[in-house]
Amino acid sequence: MTFAQTPMGRTGGMAARIGRLAGHVPVATVYVVGILLIAWPFMQALTGALGPDPVRTLEQKLGLSALQVLVVMLALTPLRRFAWINLLRFRRALGLTALMIVSAHLAVWLFLDVRDPARIWNDILRRPWITVGMAAFLMMLPLAATSSGAAIRRLGAAAWRRLHMLTYVLVPLAAVHFVMVRKGWQIEPLIYLAFIVLLLTLRLEQLLPRRRNKKRSRP
Questions:
Q1: Distance CA 34, CA 169 (A)
Q2: Are 160 and 188 in contact (CB under 8 A)?
Q3: N vs C: which end of the chain shows fewer Cβ within 10 Å?
Q4: Integer Cα distance of 214 and 187 in angstroms
Q5: pTM of the model
Q6: pLDDT digits 0-9 by tens, 11-21
Q7: Gap between the Cα atoms of 43 and 18, Å rounded
Q8: How far is it, in rounded angstroms, from Cα 202 to Cα 196?
Q9: Continuous H helices in 24-126
């Protein structure tokens, strides 16, 4: 029996085929999907398909789409490590797309929901779910600003990696924001939070041995 006939071989072959197929998909496709994820709920709102409270529903739909994109981005490294499917070329586009959708989510809250500049700062300070959500949004900004190859060269690889560890803070914060917005310990936001914690555990489990090895190699 050859290796290619074993279960591991078959899995590896399937992963390679998925990788080859993904290689033919332009990275720009991610941005197109992001635009559609923003445009479709707005179209539903305009046609009256979002129910009796379209602004709140629109706000929630955009927020959930942004969280889903962040989860996909976070899953790329475990996917490569455990399923041998390498989609890391899409990671930057996913991060920027998530920021684009979050910005639309925030714009709906600012201009269609609150609509009162005097209330905005007060809500950020006094409503914990808004405080948490705003913290996650602000963490996304330096990551987006330093997502290019030029930024990596300017900052240096080590400093860039340290800065982008914020990803492992902002994504769970986004999930906590979702849990708090829904209120009452609903199952859907808790599933998202649990899945994100699992992905973070898998990722940090990979990073910690690397750091221990670096410490041992130092004179």
A1: 22
A2: no
A3: C
A4: 41
A5: 0.87
A6: 567 777 887 78
A7: 33
A8: 10
A9: 28-46, 54-83, 91-108, 117-126
Residue pair 129/177 in contact (Cβ under 8 Å)? The answer is yes
Tell me which amino acid residue 206 is.
Q
Please tell me the predicted confidence (pLDDT) of residue 147. Answer: 93
User: In Å, how far are 89, 99, 126, 165, 176 from 145, measured between CA atoms?
Assistant: 18, 11, 29, 14, 24
Which of 51, 72, 54 shows the shortest CA–CA distance to 62? Answer: 54
Q: Roughly how many angstroms between the first and final C-alpha of the chain, as a whole number? A: 47
Q: At what angle do helices 167-182 and 187-217 cross, to 10 degrees?
A: 160
Dihedral of the CA atoms 186, 173, 32, 43 (nearest 10)? 50
Find out whether 203 and 195 touch, Cβ atoms under 8 Å: no
The SS3 call for residue 127 is coil
Kindly report, residue by residue over 47-89, the tens digit of the pLDDT: 999 999 999 999 999 999 999 999 999 999 999 988 889 999 9
Which residues does the chain have with pLDDT short of 70? 1-12, 206-219
If we measure between CA atoms, which residue out of 132, 65, 49, 127 comes closest to residue 102?
A: 65
Task: Write down the pLDDT at residue 177.
Answer: 97
Nearest residue to 38 (alpha-carbon basis) of 110, 112, 90, 102:
102
29 Cβ contact list (under 8 Å, min separation 6): none
CB contact at 8 A, 169 and 149: no
The tokens 């600012």 sit on which residue?
110
